[in-house]
Design goal:
Shape: globular
Strand content: 5-15%
Number of strands: 3
Order of helices and strands: EHEHHHHE
Number of helices: 5
Helix content: 55-70%
Oligomer: single chain
Length: 83
């Protein structure tokens, strides 16, 4: 199951308190972009990079989202996303 929710609604809190039940896209998948690019694993660093690499960022986010959907399906966990 995929659950879309606005930032600040508790997705990360739920993930941290119930990791056996949910996958938080922002906590689990977005850091992979930072690792791949060798940039700091922060929202601000990703946004700064994104400003000059919008198309590449969007492509990678979609690839990661597809991975997350498969992970959610195979694990039976809820996928929490806000993008």
């Amino acid at each position: 199951m995929i659950l879309w929710a606005h930032p600040g609604t508790g997705k990360t809190f739920l993930y941290q308190s119930q990791p056996e039940l949910v996958i938080d896209f922002d906590s689990v998948y977005k850091p992979k972009i930072s690792i791949e690019l060798g940039i700091p694993d922060t929202y601000e660093a990703r946004q700064l990079w994104r400003q000059t690499h919008q198309e590449e960022y969007n492509k990678r986010i979609l690839e990661l989202f597809n991975e997350a959907v498969i992970d959610s399906y195979l694990s039976g966990k809820w996928l929490l996303v806000s993008d």
